[in-house]
Design brief:
6 helices, 23% strand, two-stranded antiparallel sheet, alpha+beta, 173 residues, 41% helix
Length: 173
């Protein structure tokens, strides 16, 4: 199989996937290295196809909730110990966490896709962070960061903000 054929099949796999697919899974499927898959994903993205790289694997926008509700950006501030609590509050109240955004003093805005919509998603994300001994992206800005979240209505957003405020996580900037 040549490179172009592999990329077409890779995109087909992503379209037909019922859940996110990791680079390791895809590498195994195509008998190539994970780095080859990362490169293939980059080339596919360069052609204009949106592929999200989430902590659980690669997903296409069709696999992500659509914009039928409200999209909001919330500012948060907390240490690593409160990261899980923050994410649980959002998903427990019907929110979907699209990303995390920090404003780096040298590089400017840095955004990472999260795509977390359930407690299970949060558990997988937290477990992965522990396994690779990673620090949250927000640690480069002393805990200050933004999340783009989706909610079904104003009431859900209000509930999320209220609970985050009660926990001292919501940043009132």
């Amino acid at each position: 199989m040549d490179t172009e054929e592999r990329r077409e099949k890779l995109l087909s796999f992503l379209r037909n996937a019922k859940k996110p697919l990791t680079g390791t899974q895809l590498a195994r499927e195509f008998s190539v290295s994970r780095q080859i898959i990362v490169g293939d994903i980059s080339v596919i993205r360069a052609t204009g196809t949106t592929i999200y790289a989430t902590p659980r694997g690669y997903v296409l926008p069709e696999d992500v909730p659509d914009d039928t509700g409200l999209v909001a950006t919330i500012a948060c501030h907390h240490d690593k110990q409160n990261m899980r609590r923050e994410l649980e509050i959002i998903v427990d109240n019907g929110g979907f966490v699209r990303d995390v955004i920090v404003e780096h003093p040298l590089y400017g805005e840095i955004r990472a896709d999260l795509m977390l919509g359930t407690r299970h998603d949060v558990d997988v994300f937290a477990k992965r962070m522990d396994e690779c001994e990673a620090r949250p992206l927000s640690m480069v800005t002393s805990g200050i960061h933004l999340h783009t979240i989706e909610v079904k209505d104003d009431e859900s957003l209000s509930r999320i903000c209220s609970q985050l405020r009660e926990c001292g996580i919501l940043s009132e900037v």
